[in-house]
Amino acid sequence: MDRDTAVSLAQRAIKANNKRLIDALLAQRKLRGTSPVESRLADKPLIAVTCATGWECYAIVEELVATRRFRVRALYRTPGTQAAARLESLLKNTEAADPGLLTLHPGVDMNSADDLKRAFADCAGVVLYNTANTSKAGKITNHGNDPVGGRAVVMRQVQAAVAALHATPSVRQVITLIFPTDKVTGIADNAPTIPWWIDQKLRLSDFLRGQGINVTCIHRPAYYYAMHRVDYTAQQHFRGRGRMSRTMITEGNIPGITDPDFMVNWVDVRDVGKWVGTCFDYPDVFANETLSIASSAVTGHQLVEIAERSNRHGTKFHYRPFPTWLMKVLSRVTEEVVYPLSYSQWYNARGNGYDFASTADLADLERVHPLWTFERELEFWGINDIRPASAGARAQS
Fold first, then answer.
1. Does residue 394 fall inside a structural domain?
2. Using one digit for the tens of pLDDT, what is the confidence trace for 188-241?
3. 268-271: long-range contacts, CB 8 A cutoff, minimum separation 24
4. pLDDT of residue 280
5. CB neighbours (10 Å) of residue 312?
6. What letter would DSSP give residue 241?
7. What is the reported pTM?
8. Which range marks the domain in which residue 83 is found?
């Protein structure tokens, strides 16, 4: 089978599965009625979110708290970091409005079944995030080029989680966050080798289900708005002080790591958080099910069109793929580049396709949550107000 046929068949199946789940969700919502149901704090389900200082899991914590339908227990390892301070700020704001809705649990080692047992105690649900990285004293060791060591890291976390979940019968639902499904390996002819950590993480949900755990698997893109970097925290528009942690869009430049006509699925972590809350809100619909989400599906050329249409001053942009050769060079001196380099190489080699072929494919998702579009993202970053450099020079003269 050729690659494009394999991808197209998989995309059709993903859309059909999403529609089935959304139809079931909306049917349940209709039966419940539209009036919000207030409950005592003690009656709200308690949800544990692992790796809560990370950009994605932090957003999940924030979105779950915002619904006021859950008590949230944010789990993380290292206190005293900038990311931990972000959680502490959220806790302070939450306590002022809804005391007891959010609790913070630092010092949780994802490799320790005992730590996780204590962290999961009395919880009804768990957001389980596993990483191929190791951390000690706040310093990250990236295992992107070390599949043997990386697999061992992942599976130590998974084994600890399985033991903790089996020891915690109150947990009725686990949500995993995984890359887009692989539509090519073992199906299409002459498919390139899948990066090891993507292959590893794609196996986790079914592995957990095989241990008798009720797992809702959310497939979401690995590309966040602003190249491959996350943009969103509660306190600022970027997650660090370096240039790579900020949006890199400037006049004449919209960066990417795929070819300009390659269809990329993008996601904003706020949308991930909203869907995690929905899956917990409708546990019967999403029990042992898989849902695919994205915020938009656009090519590099379409990103340029959106940016120019949204800009208020006629500023022009161009899509500029980040040079693969430069990423290879950078990967020798900074491990931060290893993952996006391998991921982009796999996709640029047409090793896989995204779950959605166009933004129109996301229509079923929009029946439940309005999507955080690229237009909204540009507004959030202030890209819409970038003036052409020539116009700025004329204004100064």
1. no
2. 998 999 999 999 999 999 999 999 999 999 999 987 664 334 333 334 444 444
3. 268/224, 268/225, 268/231, 268/232, 268/295, 268/372, 268/377, 269/55, 269/56, 269/58, 269/59, 269/60, 269/224, 269/230, 269/232, 270/59, 270/63, 270/232, 270/372, 271/295, 271/369, 271/371, 271/372
4. 98
5. 9
6. S
7. 0.91
8. 3-389
**pLDDT of res. 237:** 44
Give 332-366 pLDDT, tens digit per residue.
887 777 887 888 889 889 999 999 999 999 999 99
CB 356 within 8 A of CB 14: yes
- Integer distance in angstroms from the first to the last C-alpha of the chain? 62
Q: How far apart are CA 28 and CA 277, in angstroms?
A: 15
Q: Please state, in angstroms and rounded to a whole number, the distance separating the CA atoms of residues 153 and 150.
A: 5
Q: What pLDDT score was predicted for residue 183?
A: 96
Query: Does any domain span residue 262?
Result: yes
CATH code assigned at 263: 3.40.50.720
Give the burial class of 81: count Cβ atoms within 10 A of its Cβ; 0-12 exposed, 13-18 middle, 19 or more buried: middle
Going by C-alpha positions, the residue among 158, 150, 172 that lies closest to residue 113 is 158
| CA-closest candidate to residue 111, choices 148, 73, 159 | 159
Is residue 278 situated within a structural domain?
yes
pLDDT at res. 225: 61
Give CA–CA dist 66/94, Å, rounded. Answer: 9
Number of domains observed in the structure of the chain: 1
> How is 172-210 classified by DSSP, letter by letter?
-EEEEEEPPPPSSTTTSTTPPPPPHHHHHHHHHHHHHHH
| Residue 129 burial class via C-beta count within 10 angstroms: exposed 0-12, middle 13-18, buried 19 and up | buried
Q: What's the DSSP call for residue 43?
A: G
- The residues, ordered by sequence, that sit 6+ positions from 272 with a Cβ below 8 Å of its Cβ are 56, 59, 60, 177, 218, 220, 293
Question: What is the CB neighbour count within 10 angstroms for residue 342?
Answer: 19
Q: Which residues of the chain have pLDDT under 50?
A: 226-245, 392-397
Where do the H-state alpha helices sit in 33-99?
Answer: 55-67, 82-97
The two most distant CA atoms of the chain are separated, in Å, by 71
Neighbours of 238 (CB within 10 A): 18
Which pairing describes strands 215-219 and 254-256: parallel, antiparallel, or unpaired? unpaired
- What is the predicted pLDDT for the residue at 239? 40
- For 182, the token pair is 């692989």
What 3-state class would DSSP assign to 374? helix
Please report whether residue 396 resides in a domain. Answer: no
